[in-house]
Amino acid sequence: MNPRSIILIAIAAVLTVLVILRYTVWGDNGHSAVIQPAPPPEANITIRAESGEFLPPFPAFSAISERPVFRPDRRPEPDAVVEGPAQPAGAAPQTAPEFVVVGTVTGPDGGVATIRSGNETLRAYVGDTVEGWRIDTISGSGIEVSQNGDRFRLSIGEPE
User: Fold this and answer.
1) Which of 78, 67, 48 has its CA nearest to residue 153?
2) Exposed / middle / buried, residue 75 (Cβ in 10 Å: 0-12, 13-18, 19+)
3) Do residues 115 and 156 lie in contact, with contact meaning Cβ atoms separated by under 8 Å?
4) Can you tell me the distance from the alpha carbon of 160 to that of 150, in angstroms, rounded to the nearest whole number?
5) What is the pTM of this model?
6) Which of 21, 25, 44, 148 has the fewest CB within 10 Å, making it most exposed?
7) Which CATH architecture does the domain made up of 96-160 adopt?
8) In contact, 120 and 155? CB cutoff 8 Å
């Protein structure tokens, strides 16, 4: 590049900077027109209470600290099981199913249960049969199964 080109580029750059400054920083009469930032908010901002208190007082939340949500003893109460008819005198009591309920999802159609039977994990719906046990109900905490008039309630994760 020859020296004349360098001088022309330098003059063009200086003029560009001056034009940008003229229309952004300097006003029409030479005074600074820089927009000032907004003042900081007041330190004592109050929250409007449109419908009563914003939050109840802190002691109202004592149950949270007394009973933490993720403690193992915070399991929900088991659902009530309706007892079936008494067994005949000669019938031997049935043993509980051998499979484990891994999880459940409830819905309007009864839901779905994830069951681990041996080394196999499968999905079962209300009315399906797993290892000879018919699934009667699926709830958020487990399932209810029946076989030959015997009913058992299996909670999620039991027996392990």
Assistant:
1) 78
2) exposed
3) no
4) 22
5) 0.43
6) 44
7) Roll (2.30)
8) no
